[in-house]
Specification:
- By secondary structure, the chain is of the alpha+beta class.
- It contains 14 helices and 7 strands.
- 50% of the residues lie in helices and 14% in strands.
- The relative contact order is 0.13.
- It binds a DNA duplex (13 and 12 nucleotides) through α6, α11 and α12.
Length: 280
DNA sequence: TCCCAGGGTAGTC
DNA sequence: GACTACCATGGG
């Protein structure tokens, strides 16, 4: 077991995990088990220090985006003329954009459509338990995220029984497209962000918002700005926006924040949702 | 009971 | 191109 120790005021384990970009993690002893594909680690933040315990050091260094200059990123957002952005940047300064696996992110965000985060987590956990490999991280048992090939062998009823609802048919269709090589998730990584999103939305069940999330969380396309119901609400309430077409709202935000779009989006998404939690 | 959730598809005009 | 009904499920 290796231990990576990292000092930064721009890394908070809970804030990074709890902002809807990742669905497989589990709190323990003030820290978290974090799962990605068939790998696992333990993550804990104490003050400005963050500890990562894992076997595959290089994988998790990249996973937690340790090579990015978050002082610069957060600084950009803090100086924004938009009050909500600078405020969010201060409150959510420990949020980072993870570098997640392509297949896992694709299938996870297909589940996410018109759904709630706790329920997304439950469905993914049931899927891993049903199809993943049983593994151990220290004393902790966990299941790997199943491959597209494994998913492609199941029918619509299988996914319905796991609680997918109407998304079951999307899983069947997309799993077959990926498993058959009809689309190469690595191959499309060579494309421009616009072409990458176009390729992703060619899959049944992947629309513009889900494609934006995959581009951001699995391909690190930080010029993406996913617009969901929360962001649309924030756009109206905090930016006094008048556009109603989500594609145009995405375009507006991307033009406004350029190469920092993805980071700004996570800051404001986290802040807006945490506000709602405290109010209720 | 209705409303909503990290929306997308297919049909209509 | 834009508008809209419909899509499962579960929590508030």
């Amino acid at each position: 077991m290796k231990k990576i120790t990292f000092k930064s005021e721009y890394f908070n384990a809970q804030d990074t995990l709890d902002c809807g970009q990742i669905f497989r993690y589990k709190p323990i002893n003030g820290g978290f088990f974090v799962f990605s594909g068939d790998k696992a680690c333990f993550l804990k933040t104490v003050g400005e220090w963050t500890y990562i315990e894992c076997e595959d050091e290089e994988y998790f260094k990249n996973f937690f985006d340790l090579n990015q200059d978050y002082a610069k990123i957060n600084g950009f957002a803090k100086e924004s003329k938009h009050k909500i952005v600078s405020l969010s940047a201060k409150r959510a300064k420990g949020v980072r954009i993870l570098n997640q696996l392509k297949e896992e992110t694709l299938f996870s965000f297909i589940i996410s459509q018109n759904n709630r985060i706790p329920r997304i987590k439950d469905i993914i956990e049931r899927t891993c338990k049903a199809l993943g490999k049983k593994l151990k991280f220290g004393e902790e048992e966990y299941y790997s995220f199943p491959s597209a090939t494994d998913l492609a062998q199941k029918d619509e009823q299988f996914f319905k029984d796991l609680g997918y609802g109407y998304r079951a048919k999307y899983m069947v269709s997309v799993a077959k497209s990926v498993a058959s090589g009809q689309i190469s998730l690595d191959g499309i990584g060579l494309l421009s962000t616009a072409s990458l999103k176009k390729s992703l939305t060619s899959l049944t069940g992947v629309g513009p918002k889900v494609a934006d999330c995959i581009a951001l969380f699995a391909y690190h396309r930080v010029d993406s700005f996913p617009v969901d119901t929360w962001i649309e609400k924030l756009y109206r309430e905090d930016f006094c926006g008048t556009l109603t077409d989500r594609n145009k709202i995405t375009e507006w935000f991307s033009n406004e924040f350029g190469e920092y779009s993805g980071y700004v989006q996570q800051y404001v998404f986290y802040y807006k949702r945490s506000l709602e939690k405290y109010e209720n």
